[in-house]
Design brief:
The chain is 66% helix and 0% strand. The chain is mainly alpha-helical. It has one domain. The chain is elongated. It starts with a helix and ends in a 7-residue tail after the last helix.
Length: 83
C-alpha cells in the first residue's frame, strides 16, 4: 500500500489536473495502463474483499444438451456472426 507521502503525490497530481471527474478519468486510465496485471488482479481481489463484493460465478451447463443449445444461441446472435 502507498504510504502517506506516495499517496499524497498522486493527490497533488490529481489537483494539478484540475480535480474532478476529468482528472479521475485520466489518472485511472493511466494507472491501469502502468500497473502490472498481477498488481491489478491483487487490487481487484482486495477491493472486493474490503467492500464485501460478491464475485459473480458463471453458470455451468448441466449437460451436453445445454452446451449445444448455448452454442446455437451464440451462433444465432448477429453480433457473433462473421461478416
Amino acid at each position: 500500500m502507498a504510504v502517506f507521502e506516495a499517496a499524497q503525490k498522486v493527490w497533488e497530481l490529481h489537483d494539478s489536473l484540475g480535480g474532478g471527474d476529468h482528472a479521475n478519468e485520466i489518472l485511472f486510465e493511466n494507472l491501469v495502463k502502468f500497473l502490472s496485471g498481477d498488481t491489478l488482479d491483487d487490487f481487484v481481489d482486495d477491493f472486493r474483499r474490503c467492500n464485501s463484493m460478491v464475485v459473480e460465478q458463471l453458470e455451468e451447463p448441466d449437460s451436453a444438451t445445454d452446451i449445444i443449445q448455448f452454442r446455437n444461441d451464440l451462433t444465432s446472435n448477429p453480433k457473433w456472426q462473421q461478416q
